[in-house]
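Good morning N.,

You mentioned wanting to compare the apo and holo forms, so I went ahead and generated the holo version with zinc ion. This is what I fed in:
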Amino acid sequence: MDAVATAPRTIRRDEYRPPAHTVRRATLTFDLRDEATTVAARLRIARNESGQGVLHLHAATDLEILSLRVDGVETAYERDEETIRVPADKDELLVETVTRLRPAQNTALEGLYRSSGVFCTQCEPEGFRKITPYIDRPDVMAPFTVRIEADRASCPVLLSNGNPIESGDLEDGRHFAVWDDPFPKSAYLFALVAGDLGWVEDHFTTMHGREVTLRIHADRRDLGKLDHAMESLKKSMKWDEDVYGRAYEHDVFNIVAVADFNMGAMENTGLNIFNTKYVLADKEISTDLDYQGVEGVIAHEYFHNWSGNRVTCRDWFQLSLKEGFTVYRDQCFSADQSGAAVQRISDVETLRRAQFPEDAGPTAHPIRPDSYIEINNFYTPTVYEKGAEVVRMLQALLGPEKFRKGTDLYFTRNDGNAVTCDDFVDALQDASGIDLTDFRRWYGQAGTPRLTARTSWDEAARQFEIELTQSTAPTPGQPNKEPLVIPVRTALFGTDGKLLALDAQGTLETVLTLDQPSARFVFENLPSRPIPSLLRGYSAPVRLELDLDAASLAFLAGHDNDPFNRWDAAQQLALRALQAHLTGRADDRALPALLVALRLTLSDPNVDRGLAAAMLELPDEATLALDVDQVAPDALAAAVDHLHETVSRELGDVLLDVYKSCDTNEPIAFDAASIGRRALRVASLQMLMVLPDEHRTALAETQARDAPTMTERMGALRALVDADAPAAAPVLDAFYTRHHGDALTIDKWFALQATARRPEALTRVRELLDHPDFTLGNPNRLRSLVGAYAASNFVGFHRADGEGYRLLADIVLDLDSRNPQVASRLLGPLKQWRRFAEPWREHMRAQLTRIAAKPDLSRDVYETVSKSLA
Ligand code: PHE
Ligand code: ZN
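and this is what came out, ligand included:
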């Protein structure tokens, strides 16, 4: 395990040094067996100029090294923590090691482990050192040849990166396969899979005429659920050719779905390994969100082939180089598949819900962090989602043509290399001729900037002025913040509700670039005072404070032709209404304005139904908490209840009409319009069920039992559970009986109950921890019960008696030595303790302190608790 006796060391970005040695070629032989596996490695190592007389290899603390030979001679070495030091006073050496692994006992799911009997690996970021001693850093890249030997009956399928070059039978019912990956790669992209798997096969012909064999492997029982993943893969390959000019260069592309996986998926070269959650889909069990999740993650991992694998990161501080860029790419791909408006809204919602709290909390860090204790803790919403927003801003500043020229230059210039975030910006700057010096501050500065807009109108001069001011609050280690370059996409609406021309050429939309603490922008010759629509499409990851009155926001929420801003205007009105309730202000104008805008949007069938559904999803307590100083969960919940009840009561008639109009009885389709209709059917039903009566409850029960899609059934069941309707329990039982044995669907059954919107959810969570289907060993199950409870059940988790926190801490303490990476992530909600009022604050702190006191805490959890308490 990653246990530590003393405080673990902090790794700093400015300590980066090029590697003293590099690996010229890696040849590995895996002898896979049930009890113990041996790995024989032959590493051709070369000394770089900076190299001394000692070779440093990484080896996990508990790695059992049976032998180590240098140029054929068994050699003594020193070992401490994660490094071994081998005397090596030559420019070239052959290092041969033999290690013994126990994959069946590997519960951390890093390195080589078993998932439902299948041998599989996870090496990013530092898992390869749990397999064999190596120079385990991304800037050491080598061609790999891998021989796998295993029992033929239990492991008919043997896979690694690159191309299969040899296979055959061995004695004792065993067989072997040899894989060769001639392109030098970092060790974190190594992968191996061996097991009894089925697969589906298809082909893709690249724009260069290369015929690529595509295979997706899974448990044989799941072979009927792979079509959507295969379609998504082919679409992704085509999209990357069309939009970025990037083609696939190997002959085979393999994907394997495994049930036990710490994250979503992994982009190992030519052999992606996926959490089953992001591969399997079928009409019976998958919601529209599940389908979109599969499509998006398949695309994400495929896109890494260029943004990550062929051009990789020099060191782990550069993680956003591949992740931010690849998330941006998959977001654009998804927008092209099923509707840009709803895609943008959901991407921004994710940013606000997950990244904003992080950026305002004790582990706030820039998208390119300056230091870490455990790199596994830095696969964060900041590195991923904020990183994607930074790339999106670069795209906006350069425009599509120059951005494409820039990415072309980035890929060709750096192909086959391990590079930095600066290299990425350099390529965009060199190709476009646009100076990006100041823009680079986004990479180094943490915290969400606050952007204030003050507007004024000069009637006599017919001038409209927008004054933009930015400021960023201090974050840990960064007391002083510099101004950032903030692109603010802007349009103005006239009193007739039409867009105003901003200049003589009739431009309707412009980008105001704020690169100072504050600046004024003046629009001339306007007919009357306009209503501004600022930050359209959410053009920068900031928190905008607008001096618009409720009537102007209601106008935007009912009419803005920028769908994101239309949605966001409704969110702003809802937040004002929630604030008014919290502070007891009776003269609130926001709530009536919101009702008007929602009524208009719902009842206009020409408005994208998906957008209407998104507008019905009002801000929750977690979002509201960002705007509140001393978070008192019960007060926030009361405000949200009041808002929901008002909407449910005042819009009951239109909600019911809309609900009925979305039941079209057409054959099930997965185009944007059908998905939007189902989303609105669910959202309207859920809003109706805030004030349940017999009729509404009957609708929900029928839908939960009989609706043709999982989206509708789950949505209705959610409404029954939240309303604590008598039908909830029998329908949940029926759901369980129907789907018993299907892990991903039983995950949904756990999550539905864990997120029941009431404090008593705790009791049910406790019961479910003892359910025979619950296990700490499967991350998906753990996330669906404990993760969902702590992160997505604000009312159920933040109990005034602190028992929700205690339950989470119990689980984290139990999990810490088994799977530190997942344990540390589960802790997330407790990081926010300083933002809460008493007694919640003290209860949260007490549990963090309790965890901190555990001896031999993993590096992962140590870093999270110590930073939270600092
Ligand atoms: N690199 C993976 C992705 O984003 C995420 C991952 C990180 C998976 C660490 C496993 C372990 O696509
Ligand atoms: Zn990724």
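Residues 122, 124, 262-263, 265-267, 300-301, 323, 379 surround phenylalanine (ligand 1) (CB under 6 Å).

Happy to go through it together on a call whenever suits you.

Best,
F.
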